[in-house]
Amino acid sequence: MLKTLLIASISLTLTTLTGNAFAQGGGSGKTKAAACAGCHGEDGNSAMPGFPKLAGQHKGYLVKQLQAFKNGNRISSMMGALAAGLDDRSIDEIADYYAANRITANPAPALPDSDDEDTRTEAQKKEEMASLIAAGGNLYRNGDLATAVSACIACHGPFGEGNRPGSFPSLHSQHADYLIKTLTDFKNGNRTKSRENMMYMIASKMSDQEIKAVAYYISTLK
Predict the structure, then answer these.
(1) What pLDDT tens digit does each residue of the chain (222 aa) get?
(2) Long-range interactions of 137-145: CB distance < 8 A, separation 24+
(3) What DSSP line would sit under 107-161, residue for residue?
(4) Residue 73: in which H helix or E strand, if any?
(5) What DSSP assignment string belongs to 161-175?
(6) What pLDDT is recorded for position 27?
(7) DSSP structural state of residue 104
(8) What is the C-alpha to C-alpha distance for residues 190 and 82, in angstroms, rounded to an integer?
């Protein structure tokens, strides 16, 4: 019930904001993105690790994702409701706004406590994280021939900068928690309806540990 009310509230806010913007002669992408700030941050740098940073993302990719939410090819009750009220011009302007902003770097990642009886020292946790990031870096650059997991670098670039012409997203400085969720959603088939989707075919072959490792590695890229 609370989630339904939240979606309705955000949708109404977005509709009002975009309506006012058009009444004033079109409005800016910043104005139209105001309803997105609660989850994605005012400038697209989300403070909550479960929501993606949008700042500095390629415009073409942002447009593609908003259109996918709008037409139902990408499933999200909240984003679907938000995107449904956007016309092509508004989508274009919002994408322009976020693409023009700079993404912020993440602090050094730290492993969460596994439970209340976690006996690892801080030094052990740092060593474990360093090992995890190293494994993620190797997977990102080289893939895994034995399990046919493709190297991320092929589409997302050596520094996680993505590929603008190909609309492959920039990944560097993204929240590790969001990346873990996204890869897990691809792996489980929750992100896409198509079993021929490239990311589904890659993530479905990855172990949970590999997903965690590559996500933490990508989060450190700048």
Answers:
(1) 434 434 444 444 444 444 443 333 345 899 999 989 999 999 999 999 999 999 999 999 999 999 999 998 888 889 999 999 999 999 999 999 999 999 999 999 988 777 767 788 888 889 999 999 999 999 999 999 999 999 999 999 999 999 999 889 999 999 999 999 999 999 999 888 788 899 999 999 999 999 999 999 999 999
(2) 137/217, 139/210, 139/213, 139/214, 139/217, 140/214, 140/217, 140/218, 144/210
(3) PPP-PPPSSTT----HHHHHHHHHHHHHHHHHHHHH-BTTTTBPPTHHHH-TTS-
(4) none
(5) --BTTTTBPP-TT--
(6) 57
(7) P
(8) 19
Q: Is 213 exposed, middle or buried (0-12, 13-18, 19+ CB in 10 A)?
A: buried
Residues near 149 by beta carbon (within 8 Å), at least 6 away in sequence: 139, 143, 202, 205, 206, 210
Domains contained in the chain, CATH given: 2-100 (1.10.760.10), 122-220 (1.10.760.10)
Q: How many CB atoms lie within 10 A of CB 74?
A: 18
Q: What is the pTM of this model?
A: 0.84
Q: Between the CA of residue 82 and those of 66, 129, 155, what are the distances in Å?
A: 9, 37, 29
Q: What is the pLDDT of residue 112?
A: 78
Q: CB–CB of 220/106 below 8 Å?
A: yes
**Close Cβ partners of 194 (under 8 Å, ≥ 6 residues apart):** 200
In the structure encoding, which two tokens stand for residue 182, read together? 């996204």
Residues 6+ apart with CB under 8 A from 55: 41, 43, 44, 45, 98, 101, 102, 103, 104
